[in-house]
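REVIEWER CHECKLIST
Item 1: Sequence provided? yes
Item 2: Single chain? yes
Item 3: Sequence as submitted:
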Amino acid sequence: AFAGALTGAFPSVKLAGKLAFPQFLLANQEVGSLEADILYHENHVSLSRVSGQFFSGVFSGEAHARFASENAIGAAENSVGGFEAKLKYTDLPLDRLLEISPLTAQVKDLSLKGLFVTGDVAVSGAGMGDGVQAGGKVEAKRLPLFSPAVPEKAASLQKLAGLFESGKLQWNWSSDGLAVEKGELALPGTVLVFSGKWEKTEGLVLETALSSQDVGKITETVGLPLTGGVNATGVLSQREGIPSFQGGIHFKSGALRGQTFTSFVSDLDLKGRRVGIKKAVLNVPAKTESGKPPSPAGIYTAEGTLNLDDLKSPQFDFKVEV
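Item 4: Structure as written out by the authors:
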């Protein structure tokens, strides 16, 4: 609904009033409410005091645009079209957002339920082409009360997404691509921080640092028989759809397929599900079992490859020295 006034004489007309939609629809479903003040004058249109409700969350913002005019009188900038918009949002349900998006309308992943996002975004440009720039911050958090259990037969990726607790992201977009100034993801006992960029020609490149008290809950979810605390740093990238990682890793007091170890340090070169291990040092504690000769402690160095095509039965090809 619109209430306002139209004044002036063509072509210098002025329109001012208020837009109000107590209930509005997107993708054939009611999603919330919207109201804003609108002003149009001399090829400029402004939406101010924009506010409303979006599902269970709220939003506010403003938007301004100017239209190109060959007959503009006065400042030269009036002859060039452009726009800018700012939006703040609080506690928007992520699963409902994806349902109404034309790019993700088929998402039915239960592990996204209970995730709510809060943040802001600013967009500006001289048109809708390469001149568009955008940036903002977003924080996501999971509220267990609204998060149903992930089905036992769900895929490993869906189960892994179900472990997501919270995240933060500060980003900027331009014709060069997407830049991530600061990102953080939290899973049970584990925090991953990252920064980097995505470009059309070079793909994704992220500087990463991971710290975990014990990765057992995460590795169990994807079927990998590995436990222990871990710190890792390196470069994560993806080109032509194939992920890769180059960096270093340090495990503390863990176990692999039931074999305990005190520490494991190595350089890693991962591509897809193939892991290259270099300069690896494994420290294994002494082991005593009833009816068997004691197994002494040992320090092993190794180089080789680990194939994770079958996570339940990893394939090894190592050269080991004791």
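Item 5: Key structural point noted by reviewer: The longest strand covers residues 12-26.
Item 6: Recommendation: ____
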